[in-house]
Amino acid sequence: MTLIVTAAAGLAAGAIRLAKPAVGIAWRVGALALMYLGAALMWCVDGIAGLVQGEGFIELHDGAAMRDDALLGLVVVGLGLAIWAILVVSRRHPGRSR
Amino acid sequence: MACFLATTVAAVAVGAVKSAQRPSADAAQAPGTTPAPATSRHKVPWRRRLTWLFNLFAGGSVLLALEHIWHGEVIFAPPFLTAMSSAEETAAMWREIGTVGVGMVLIILAAWGLMVFLAERVEVFQRLALRTK
User: Which of A28, A61, A63, B108 lies at a C-alpha separation of 20 to 30 Å from A22?
Assistant: First the structure.
């Protein structure tokens, strides 16, 4: 579920970047999309490794584990947004720390 | 266990290469002045392409590290990784870094390679469209 939530967030950010290039460049939406898609790709490899070891690609049988993974996905999206906000603010006010 | 360490090392390496690259003339341009003519044949400079790779590696590593903290595999006291509590688990951790971690690095490199390829194709089509006008 973490993979699905993160990949959905990455695809949404990527769609905004491609559909509205001016907004995407001004607000660095591409960096946000790459961050989420990078994590989603890494979890894909983790899922494939799970398949090789005889586990499932995604946990679909245990409801509690699914809820926990979905919550983790939302926390991951929140952390991505926080990093992106810092990135946008630091680029709009360069040299403040000097 | 600690597969995100492989991608973190890759992010640091790409960051170092990116820092060593000289910023393009457009980036160094003073605000309010006209941009200098592009000297590269590429519309998207290599520094920006490396930024894509850096964002994929660094962003993914940070989010993956959060997942490891969530699952209690990373702790905020030495040895920081629970897998380092015994020799057997440490060996399994290194095995995982060597297989899953390296696999993650390779898939990110493949995705980035596809992005660069598509960006170059778009540049070629745009150049052809300009020539035929």
Answer: B108
B45-96 pLDDT, tens per residue?
Answer: 888 899 999 999 999 999 999 999 999 999 888 888 888 888 999 999 999 9
With contacts defined as CB-CB under 8 Å, which chain A residues touch B3?
42, 46
Measured between beta carbons, the chain A residues lying within 8 angstroms of B18 are none
The answer to whether the CB of A35 falls within 8 A of the CB of A84 is yes
| Candidates A2, A37, A42; nearest CB to B7 | A42
- Check whether B27 has a pLDDT greater than 60: no
Separation between Cα atoms, residue B79 and residue B84, nearest integer Å: 6
Partner-chain contact A35 B59, CB within 8 Å: yes
| CA dihedral of residues B91, B93, B98, B104 (deg, nearest 10) | 170
Closest CA to A43 of B65, B82, B91: B65
Residue B113 C-alpha, separation from nearest chain A C-alpha, in angstroms: 13
Q: What angle do CA A87, A42, A55 make, to 5 degrees?
A: 145
pLDDT at B25: 46
Q: Do B59 and A48 touch (CB under 8 A)?
A: no
| Contact between A42 and B55 using a beta-carbon 8 Å cutoff | no
Q: What is the mean pLDDT of residues A1-17?
A: 94
Q: Are B112 and B53 in contact (CB under 8 A)?
A: yes
Over residues A29-84, the pLDDT tens digits come to 999 999 999 999 999 999 999 899 888 888 777 888 889 999 999 999 999 999 99
Residue B52 contacts A where some CB pair is shorter than 8 Å: yes
